[in-house]
Amino acid sequence: MSAVDRRPPHEVRSAAVRALFSLSLTLVALIVATLASYAGSGLLAPALLLMALGVFGTAWSLLEILISRQIAAQRLRGPNSASPLAGSREPRRRPAGRRAPLESSRVWR
Description:
Layout: H1 10-39, H2 44-77
């Protein structure tokens, strides 16, 4: 991947969309529960149940984002990396002006 293309993989994007969807439903349930408690309505119990399920779903989705990011990073590193914490290590390159001495230019005495 180039430095310009910073788009996350498809799995990470879909997990983020699910997390935002779950968070938005949780916030709607919170608003409904608040209004139902002010009004003394019978919608309070279902709204609280939906809000509890939404909090669980949001936490699950955030955990899914973390796991899918780790899997995508591991896939980019490749199977022969030193360790998961090492990251990708590219070999150091010499500056363009300097070259290594040729083997055939040595003088044998």
